[in-house]
Specification:
The chain is α/β, with parallel strands linked by helices. The protein contains 13 helices and 27 strands. Among the domains are: about 1-245, HUPs (Rossmann fold), CATH 3.40.50; about 330-450, Ribosomal Protein L25, Chain P, CATH 2.40.240. Helix content is about 25%, strand content about 25%. The structure holds adenosine-5'-triphosphate and magnesium ion (MG).
Length: about 550
């Protein structure tokens, strides 16, 4: 439909879109959908997309969100340019409203919000005209001026468009254009005591800016006739902007609306808007989702005309694909089990020596090179890479069995030291010096390669492992309380042991800890110091492929 418009339709082939966030919270991945759509369409048709803050609700809006939203856009890879503000147009909107009053198309109503809502009627019942609907133009002009001059309290009066209280579309039953709010606005200060509603401000702001295509989510479908009515009423002498609706983006296992996200923050279920479990751009960033993967995902799901919910695993598969290509490989052990190499050489004082192994940084990218990994007589391996009494399909370390240490040597488990309750304390192993580099000269094979770190060289890092924030795929579906399925175990922090080269990872950078997944160094880590905290971005297994198999 956009294609048609821009080829042979109005606007002389020009395409101009806008992204209109309200500065009352942080952007989430649903906004990313709208951003990639609006900026993408503008790009595709050599047009322009403007960032416009829809700042018409002074009580919840704040300048800090204005800054944060621009920051998040830039992080996504979008240059939003100089932003516009609906509040820049308050003067023009007011002048148009006065004009509508003068032409008998708007009136001041004294009914309170509750009465107005009740008198709007329902889908099957007509509305009831307000007793104030037929005030004279003079009286309306006078009252509207006094509303503006702060002579009335909040809610005492509103300005309404005079359309049709029996209209089949409820939005057209004399919608409210202005309400009184004796509120300080973060940009216009105390200049205004009346504030335009979304419908009155949005379409007219679109018109002022020369927007051609106003893309919004499906729930505004019923507002479209009103959007057009206002443009007719103000007597635009150019082509009107057109509103087109598209489906909201929703993800499984989370909530998306700002109101619900705020609730998560305020009730302390997460650490903040930028908690790594939040679907906010800040949360996804902290978690280690690359902006390119978010854009790939939004592009892949495309635009739909029906609201749906996308699997979070699909998003994660885009994240995994990116990191697989670009992330450096490192070794870390999340649940350390000590291994002593009994035949490791010691010097004349009996002190263990260390040896430097070379490991490949990224098998997907030769230019990433190699790194040095110290090996010594005391190592940590992952506790679950060992079993005393392994079942048939377990090929990793077990008593008497030989495995390969990644980029190290073959080791054989000779003895298991256990504590009083049978718990495993350490393994005594021997290594084969001939297997440096991972091959045995006699060609003998091992069935498993495991990761490890040298105990004396290891860095201590905290690692956060995540489960879904909501156990329900569709929290709140069927009218349930979405918070009923909040997962109290959604984060587990472990003290892990990491190889020394992990110190080179910058805050925000993502690495693959071999066999464990992709991990992002925390953004708030001191860049000059050793890392202290990592978030597991995603595991290595492609859960999306699994889901698709199940569905086919
Ligand atoms: P929320 O319900 O999360 O508060 P909102 O629509 O009130 O969202 P705005 O800041 O008003 O948030 O939205 C800015 C733009 O982003 C709007 O054009 C809106 O349609 C779009 N948008 C918001 N949420 C989504 C979503 N989940 N999917 C696609 N677009 C969205
Ligand atoms: Mg909104």
């Amino acid at each position: 439909m956009l294609k048609e418009h821009s080829m042979n339709g109005p606007y002389g082939g020009r395409v101009q879109t806008r992204f209109p966030p309200e500065p009352n919270g942080f952007l989430h991945i649903g906004h990313a959908k709208s951003i990639t759509l609006n900026f993408g369409v503008a790009d595709e048709f050599a047009g322009e997309c403007r960032l416009r803050f829809d700042d018409t609700n002074p009580e919840t809006e704040d300048a800090r969100f204005v800054d944060a939203i621009q920051e998040d856009l830039r992080w996504l890879g979008i240059d939003p340019g100089e932003p516009a503000f609906a509040s820049d147009y308050f003067g023009q909107l007011h002048a148009w409203a006065v004009d509508l009053i003068e032409r008998g198309l708007a009136y001041v109503d004294d009914q309170d919000a509750e009465t107005i809502s009740k008198n709007r009627g329902g889908f099957t019942t007509p509305g009831t005209n307000s007793p104030w609907r037929d005030r004279s133009v003079e009286e309306n002009l006078d009252l509207f001026a006094r509303m503006k001059a702060a002579e009335f309290a909040d809610g005492e009066k509103v300005l309404r468009a005079k359309i049709d209280m029996n209209h089949e579309n409820m939005q057209m039953r004399d919608p409210v254009m202005y309400r009184i709010r004796n509120q300080h606005h973060f940009r216009t200060g105390d200049q205004w005591k009346i504030y335009p509603t979304y419908d009155w401000a949005h379409g007219q702001s679109d018109a002022i800016e020369g927007t051609t295509h106003s893309l919004c989510t499906l729930e505004f479908d019923s507002h479209r006739p009103l959007y057009d009515w206002y443009h007719e009423a103000i007597g635009l002498d150019t082509d009107h902007p057109r509103q087109t609706e598209f489906a909201r983006l929703n993800l499984t296992h989370t909530v998306m609306s700002k109101r619900k996200l705020l609730e998560l923050v305020e009730e302390g279920h997460v650490d903040g808007w930028d908690d790594a479990r939040m679907p906010t751009l800040r949360g996804l960033r902290r978690r280690g989702h690359p902006p390119e993967a978010i854009r790939d995902f939004c592009g892949h799901i495309g635009i739909a005309k029906v609201n749906g919910v996308h699997e979070v695993e699909l998003l994660e598969s885009f994240v995994r694909t990116r990191h697989n290509r670009h992330a450096l490989r490192r070794m870390a052990v999340l649940d350390p089990l000590e291994v002593v190499i009994t035949n490791w050489p010691t010097d004349e004082r009996g002190v263990g020596q260390s040896d430097i192994r070379t490991a490949i940084n990224n098998p997907e990218d030769e230019t990433a090179g190699t790194r040095e990994v110290p090996f010594s007589g005391r190592l940590f391996i992952e506790r679950d890479d060992f079993m005393i009494d392994p079942p048939k399909k377990f090929f990793r370390l077990a008593p008497g069995r030989e495995v390969r240490l990644r980029a190290g040597y073959f080791i054989t488990c000779d003895e298991v030291e256990t504590g009083p309750d049978g718990e495993i304390i350490r393994l005594l192993c021997s290594y084969d010096p001939e297997t440096a580099g991972g091959q045995a000269p006699d060609g003998r094979k091992v069935k498993a390669t495991i990761h490890w770190v040298s105990a004396e060289h290891a860095l201590d890092v905290d690692v956060a492992l995540y489960e879904r924030l909501f156990t329900d795929e569709h929290p709140g579906s069927g009218g349930d309380d979405p918070f009923a399925s909040l997962n109290s175990q959604s984060r587990e922090v472990r003290l892990a042991k990491a190889e020394p080269a992990v110190a080179d990872i910058a805050p925000g950078e993502v690495v693959q800890f071999e066999r464990l997944g992709y991990f992002a160094r925390d953004l708030d880590d001191d860049p000059a110091a050793d890392p202290t905290f990592f978030h597991r971005t995603v595991g290595l297994r492609d859960e999306w492929a699994k889901i698709q198999k199940r569905q086919s």
